[in-house]
Amino acid sequence: MSLTIQVTFDCADPAALSRFWNEVLGYRLDSPPPPYETWDEALDAWNIPEENRNDASASVDPDGQGPRLWFQKVPEGKTAKNRVHLDVRAAVGLRGDERMAALEAKCEALVALGATRVRRVEADGLVNAGHIVMQDPEGNEFCLD
Hints:
A hairpin with a 5-residue loop joins strand 7 and strand 8. The radius of gyration is 17 Å and the shape is elongated. The mean pLDDT is 93. It is built from three helices and eight strands, in the order βαβαβββαβββ. It folds into two domains: 68 residues, Signal recognition particle alu RNA binding heterodimer, srp9/1 (2-Layer Sandwich); 59 residues, no CATH class. It starts with 5 loop residues before the first strand and ends with a strand. It is α/β, with parallel strands linked by helices.
């Protein structure tokens, strides 16, 4: 039996957070199920009221390699640090100044998309090669690694 994973985000605005992560990861919105050509067509057919059409969103890796991302609307806001977070691997194989320059460039691009920079963590000469801690537009922590 083959298993796959889906990463789920509780959030206030599934459509907006899905768009953000699509930009970050190069993902796209999941396609509507057949026979529907658009999500609006599917939601109309299922009689989903307008006020519930942003209750969920799904994003997929166009290459089919990465996990599906599911964004679901919840009534409460984020109140504590994430116990699990994503690492966005933006400088694989790079070290030192070259690595940190690549991470800084990616950080700047993500801030322009609505992310927040939290702090830069310098290399420790052991396991940590240096990274930048960030938050998505709804405050979920992630690292540029």
